[in-house]
Write a structure and sequence with these properties.
This protein is α+β, with helices and mostly antiparallel strands. The protein has six helices and seven strands; from the N terminus they run βββαβααβααββα. The protein has one domain: Muramoyl-pentapeptide Carboxypeptidase, domain 2 (2-Layer Sandwich). The strands form two sheets. A five-stranded mixed beta sheet has the order 2-4-5-7-6. A two-stranded antiparallel sheet has the order 1-3.
């Protein structure tokens, strides 16, 4: 990974107030069961994403005092994207990982994989784990899953706390991952900003 600390376009959020960072691809606690980041443990996002995250933190603090964000992934080099793609390509999980040839919003620093910690510092139950590549993870199906009893109202309420804070900051939710938020659209980013290899 290039030296992001020297770039004026990227902001490190590893120690921001209101945010806990737990980079899942820097551990074996992810769907590949491998540490894909090696010793790298800093969390960067594009400066435009950082502005929106500051607003989202304020929105969360105002509407749900004591809650904090937990970041599971942020800027992800395309070299790591290729490793993720190799695991899912040709499987039913393929739709959950962007094709590295096109690039993921993560590769530009414009996406966050994010959850919540409650006022006691416990991970908030969203009804499906981060990178839980099942229908339970899909915001677009929440009404149906609630009616079918596969998600509870409390789990939906938790997702709404996260969603209202992130949308309040100017993010857009990915339709099939409760944890994934983009700061801009693909049309605004791909081909117009620098991709991190």
């Amino acid at each position: 990974m290039k030296n992001l600390a020297a770039s004026p376009n990227f902001v490190e959020i590893t120690h921001w107030q209101g945010v806990t960072v737990n980079l899942k691809y820097g551990t074996t606690d992810n769907f590949t069961r491998k540490n894909l980041y090696g010793p790298y443990n800093k969390c960067y996002i594009h400066k435009i994403t950082a502005e929106k995250l500051r607003k989202a933190i304020e929105t969360l603090r105002k509407n749900n005092p004591g809650y904090k964000f937990i970041v599971f992934d942020a800027l992800r080099p395309r070299s790591v994207q290729r490793k993720l793609w190799a695991v899912v390509k040709g499987t039913s999980h393929q739709k959950y990982v962007a094709d590295p040839d096109k690039g993921s919003m993560h590769n530009y620093g414009f996406a966050l994989d994010i959850g919540l910690l409650d006022p006691q510092g416990k991970l908030v139950d969203m009804g499906a784990s981060f990178d839980g590549f099942t229908l339970l993870s899909e915001p677009q199906l929440e009404s149906r899953l609630l009616k079918e009893g596969k998600l509870t109202q409390i789990q939906i309420d938790h997702r709404m706390i996260l969603r209202s804070a992130m949308v309040g900051g100017g993010f857009r939710q990915l339709r099939h991952e409760w944890w994934h938020y983009d700061a801009l659209t693909e049309e605004q980013v791909i081909g117009k900003f620098e991709i991190v290899e």
